[in-house]
Amino acid sequence: MPSPSTVLASKVTDAIIDAFGDDARGADPALRPSQFADLQSNAALSLARRVGLAPRDAAQRLIDHLRVEEICAKAELSGPGYINLTLSDRWIARQVSAVAGDGRLGVPRETPQRVVIDYSAPNVAKEMHVGHLRTTVVGDALARVLEHLGHTVIRQNHIGDWGTPFGMLIEHLLDVGEDSAEARRLATDPNAFYQSARAAFDTDPAFATRARARVVALQAGDEETLRLWAELVELSRQYFAAIYSRLGVSLTDADLAGESTYNDDLPRICEELEAQGIATVSQGALCVFLPGYTGRESEPVPLIVRKSDGGYGYGTTDLAAVRHRIGTLHADRLIYVIGAPQALHLSMVWETAREAGWLPPEITPVHVQIGNVLGPDRKILKTRSGAPLRLAALLDEAVATARAAIDEDRPELDEPTRSALAPLVGIGAVKYADLSVGHDTEYVFDLERMVALNGNTSRYLQYAAARLRSLLRKAGVEPEAVGSAITVGEPAERALALLLLDFGEVVSAVGRDLEPHRLCTYLFELAQTFSVFYEQCAVLTAEPEVRASRLALCALTLRVLVTGLDLLGIASPDTM
């Protein structure tokens, strides 16, 4: 269901053709909000030079050819050549009633694609830290939005589950015992196990020798070594699943697609690149040198696909992943939600895959670059000791902070209710703070601000949804049982209705541009606009016909808020 700006852009395009002919078709009919009217077209400004008229004269001719009587109450010339279009109350009411009667709330079902999205990607036997937060949360929101738009989304959690560290990890597992308490801690506190293994490797030459030999056995496919490796992976899988459950993200065990997935394909990757002349041996390593990729002193930067010792690195597994996602998963679209510093590496991988014929020209992979989370000192958020902040500890703190805020703001709630609300508010606050800023920008982590009941926070949106539910309960109606007939008269009704018409277009824009913060901005504006409506327009005490219409408007606002928050992966509690 198109938004008002989409509908009127089409009408302006028709008027341009009628007034100036097909040659003027390329003029920009973009519409933008105006403080003077509902919408404002700047089409005449871009058109005037092309048709040899002053902007105001071009605008007036456009107005004369506009056929918007069924949509607009008036069309007026403004300023240097703007056209102000005031939508009619009747048209707005008809459109918003249609949205209220639409199970998808105006969100289009797009031509389906197979979208492969790579996100989260923690390492086996290492604890997830704050650096994993953004890629997990942003990636999951994008996956949800794309699925809602009708696409088949294939999640790929490219975990680090292979390589030289596993030699020392397996040897340490054998030293402490597979059934020991330390081994079982991998499922809850992986860092302790990893650090112990690292300390043994660094201080015990005999242990280091065994660890190196174990890596060789692992790469050679030794059965017992693979069994021990699988045990390490399983314990980490349990840890990942617990974190994802707390975060409320949609990743499952079925989405795990670690580096080990591509082991059998790595020799073939190297053989094909070498056979095509794309990769050459340099200082004993097999490398790809791409034009334009140079470092200091203009030295070429290689993508190493086979190390001088015969091992494989990230570049090789990433190339294998591209080939698998295109050739086996049949992706129409590739999305990588990964830290911004990986931009050069990904670009080289994709260009190499393109050269090799594994990445067809019609598919352009997208790097959704993830910025850093900062502490109050505006440096990367870390513990006092300088170590990366554990994600589990951060979530614990978020829930505790939310509980304190709930205790202060809502002391009348009973203990079970406050206990149940704390994780919904705390986890939601962390996710929303991350999603509400551009994914490629940095932001300062401030839990006190995140759980505030005022401002652009998830708690404010959750409160708005709970407030709407309370209103409908007082009216004695269920949200899904409210009618869809809406009339528009008061300015606050009009403003809320117009904003509700934009929901489908906003969700489409998030799916197209991969920017979840747009949805956050929209939901915040919607909650604010509803608050003004609630203050200025009586609902429960209004005349019967007006009451029914306003209840329908409230029910629609609730559905849009809850749906929008769900697309972000944030819960909407009944009570706040």
The largest pleated sheet is described as: 4 strands, antiparallel
Helix content: 40-55%
Query: What gross morphology would you assign?
Result: globular
Cα end-to-end separation:
32 Å
Count of helical stretches: 21
Side-by-side strand order of the widest sheet: 1-2-4-3
Q: From the alpha-carbon coordinates, what is the Rg to the nearest angstrom?
A: 28 Å
Low-confidence stretches: none
Compact overview of the structure:
This protein has 576 residues and is of the alpha/beta class. It has 21 helices and 13 strands. It is globular and about 85 Å long.
Structure description:
The chain is α/β, with parallel strands linked by helices and 576 residues long. Strand 10, helix 13 and strand 11 form a beta-alpha-beta unit. The strands form four sheets. A four-stranded antiparallel β-sheet has the order 1-2-4-3. The chain has a four-stranded parallel β-sheet with strand order 6-5-10-11, covered by helices on one side. It has helices spanning 4-20, 43-51, 55-65, 89-100, 130-148, 165-176, 181-184, 190-203, 205-219, 223-247, 266-275, 314-327, 343-356, 391-409, 415-435, 447-450, 458-474, 491-500, 503-513, 517-536, 544-567, and strands at residues 31-32, 39-41, 72-78, 82-87, 114-118, 152-156, 279-282, 285-294, 300-306, 333-339, 366-370, 373-374, 443-444. The chain contains 21 helices and 13 strands. Helix 8 crosses helix 9 (205-219) and helix 20 runs antiparallel to helix 21. 42% of the residues are buried. The two termini are 32 Å apart. The protein is globular, with a radius of gyration of 28 Å. The chain is 52% helix and 11% strand.
